[in-house]
Amino acid sequence: MSVKRVGLPLMNVVKLRGTPILQQLLLEERLLRSSSANWCIVNDGTNLPNIVMGLSGKPCELVELEPVIRDQVPVIKRFTGGGTVIVDENTLFVSLICNRNDVPDVQPYPRSVMAWSGSLYSQVFNGIGDFQLRENDYVFGDRKFGGNAQSITRNRWIHHTSFLWDYSESNMAYLKLPSRVPQYRLERDHTDFVCRMKDYIERAGFIEKTIKAVGTQFMLKELSFDEIDDSCREHLETTRLLTLDELKETLAKTTQNESIAQAV
Amino acid sequence: MAARFLWASRVASHLKISIAQRGFASVVLKDLKYAESHEWVKIDGNKATFGITDHAQDHLGDVVYVELPDLGRSVSQGESFGAVESVKATSDINSPVSGKVVEVNEVLSESPGLVNTSPYEDGWIIKVELSDAEEAKKLMDSDKYSKFCEEEDAKH
């Protein structure tokens, strides 16, 4: 152990692969609220396409309900803020759950945590593709490849990212253009706004570099999924899968409202 | 800075309380009590009104959503009862005192930005029936809270 690592706070690292995104999010919410340790969760692709909305997301505004219902694409509401994504085996996830006292230079507010994450990933993408944190997205140049979201509690916070390793245009068609878009997007449509991470970095290399960057601020300890203590489950769980009935009801109401609007 | 003090003066005049002008940044109102997690509380008999402070709303950024608790729900001092969403984050709102929720500010569902523009007035979040009036003694007064905010900001 080198001298510089003495006194660094401990960070548990859990590497997953193909874990269902609902399971990952429920795990993260539990660890944020019921654990006192720091965690770095890496999920190297989830197993099936799922739509994931932020806490305040409204399906009628964010999702093309008819094809989603027809094709039975799961829609999840997560416990963090932020926008809507469709994730699959070509989405990589990195989540950092920290005690605020273990990152004392970071105030427990969104912009401060976001800036800290930007500097962390600047180490990962050093010299690669003009990486920057732009508004709240990770970009190469002016093209987004990573979307962020956070949840902040009294003494802890989570910052998690979905990285577009690759994506399919047909999956993106399940999502509507959101009403709130970053200013740097300008008027660009989706294909001109995002880029594929695989065009810039090797998949395994990205994961390795990310864990290494985390290791500059924390003492790392790798745990398997089975080694995570799940005895404490007293927290309020807000992450959930929306039911098909809920989506159908939303579609029916939306259709009815549109009909009334047209008649008027 | 001058505009914020003018706003605070108008609020204070309406609420019939005096204000403490800090050297910089956020507004703190006298006659309210404050929690370290940056919620304010106004106690009136056995009822209390809560919200988040000007310091909190300034650091959170534009609030786009407020998750409100159900009526009748119990809240405990220091525990989360709801959340605000700003930027890409949900941030817990913690209860400064314990009690039962008797009113929520439904206007925030349509106008969450009131938490930013009027944190001590129109942006109030919930009202509770107190279960333990003594708990308020654990909270900070305006002078202590002002100092607390300055010390917190100075660390970063």
What does this structure look like?
The complex is a heterodimer of chains A (264) and B (156). With 264 residues, chain A is α+β, with helices and mostly antiparallel strands. Chain A is built from eight helices and twelve strands. Chain A has one domain: Bira Bifunctional Protein, Domain 2 (BirA Bifunctional Protein, domain 2), CATH 3.30.930. Helix content of chain A is 30%, strand content 25%. With 156 residues, chain B is an alpha+beta fold. In chain B, 27% of the residues lie in helices and 31% in strands. In chain B, the strands form three sheets. Chain B has a six-stranded antiparallel sheet with strand order 3-4-5-11-10-7. Chain B is globular. The chains are: A alpha+beta (264), B alpha+beta (156). At the A-B interface, helix 4 and strand 9 of A face strand 6, strand 8 and strand 9 of B. Strand 9 of chain A pairs parallel with strand 9 of chain B, so a sheet runs across the interface. Chain B: InterPro entries: 2-oxoA_DH_lipoyl-BS, Biotin_lipoyl, GCV_H, GCV_H/Fam206, GCV_H_sub, Single_hybrid_motif. Chain B: It is found in: Mitochondrion. Chain B: The glycine cleavage system is composed of four proteins: P, T, L and H.
List keywords for this structure.
heterodimer, A: 264 residues, alpha+beta, BirA Bifunctional Protein, domain 2, 8-stranded mixed β-sheet, 4-stranded mixed β-sheet, globular, B: 156 residues, 3-stranded antiparallel β-sheet, 11 strands, 27% helix
The overall strand count of chain A is 12
CA distance, first residue to last residue of chain A: 73 Å
> Globular, elongated, flat, extended or rod-shaped: what is the shape of chain A?
globular
How many distinct helices of chain A? 8
Tell me roughly what share of residues is in helical segments of chain B. 25-40%
The fourth-level CATH homologous superfamily of chain A is Bira Bifunctional Protein, Domain 2
Give the low-pLDDT segments of chain A. none
Number of domains of chain A: 1
Kindly state the mean pLDDT of chain B as a whole number?
89
Q: Strand content of the residues of chain A, in percent?
A: 25-35%
Query: CATH topology of chain A, what is it called?
Result: BirA Bifunctional Protein, domain 2
The topology string of helices and strands of chain B comes to: HEEEEEHEEEEEHHEH
Poorly predicted runs of chain B:
16-23
CATH architecture of chain A: 2-Layer Sandwich
